[in-house]
Amino acid sequence: MIEYEIIKRPVITEKTSIQKEDHRQVTFEVDRCANRVEIRRAVERLFNVHVAAVRTAQVKGKVKQRGRIVGKRRDRKKAIVTLMPGERIDFFEGV
């Protein structure tokens, strides 16, 4: 797989912002078939950083209802990447 197929997008929430500041952890939404080794290589190549650890989690989509119409959000996989000391990834540089 190509790096851009493995890493889909960063997950930016209040919790992930705190993890980024306090624990050097960055969270990405990744391809559901990607394993930890592929995710580590993709992050190191795309962002030019050194990765200490990768944790993954399968996130089940929530069931949503709007009136009588019932739908479901898609399932996804997220990866929490811990960076080595001194490393950083900035998503909004210069904003």
Indicate the topology.
Blueprint: H1 3-6, E1 7-10, H2 14-23, E2 25-30, H3 36-47, E3 51-59, E4 63-66, E5 69-72, E6 76-83
Antiparallel strand pairs: 1-2, 2-6, 3-6, 4-5
Descriptive notes:
- This protein has 95 residues and is of the alpha+beta class.
- The protein has one domain: 2-Layer Sandwich (Alpha-Beta Plaits), CATH 3.30.70.330.
- Helix content is 27%, strand content 37%.
- It has helices at 3-6, 14-23, 36-47; strands spanning 7-10, 25-30, 51-59, 63-66, 69-72, 76-83.
The amount of helix comes to 25-40%
CATH architecture annotation = 2-Layer Sandwich
Outline type:
globular
Radius of gyration: 15 Å
The low-confidence parts are: none
The structural class is alpha+beta
* Tally of contiguous helical segments: 3
Strand portion: 35-45%
Mean pLDDT: 93
Number of domains: 1
Q: What order do the strands of the largest sheet run in, or round the barrel if closed?
A: 1-2-6-3
Give the SSE order as H and E letters: HEHEHEEEE
Strand count: 6
The major β-sheet equals: 4 strands, antiparallel
